[in-house]
Amino acid sequence: MAGLRMDGVVVAEYARTAEEAADDLHAAAAVVGGEGVSGESYGALGAQIGLGESYGRAAGALRRQLADGAEALKSAAEALRHVTVRHSGQDAEAAELIERAGRVE
Asked: Can you give the pTM of this predicted structure?
């Protein structure tokens, strides 16, 4: 794209931030509970209406969402790094072409 400017350092920092956030989401998913919660945890009424099972399903859904979010952030970080590497490679190629042109004259 003509006129598009990219600061590789800034993009690399975004990638690092996204990866750190992904790690935080993975850590949060690991501690989302549900284990050890039974119908009795909420008393007779809780057992009768299935609060323990509902809590377990909600905890499972939250774990899946956190894991999905972490994977999305890791993918974004990888894509940002790819863009940074590709962009810096183009800069190096352009510099080499300019240097060669100077030697030809």
From this structure: 0.70
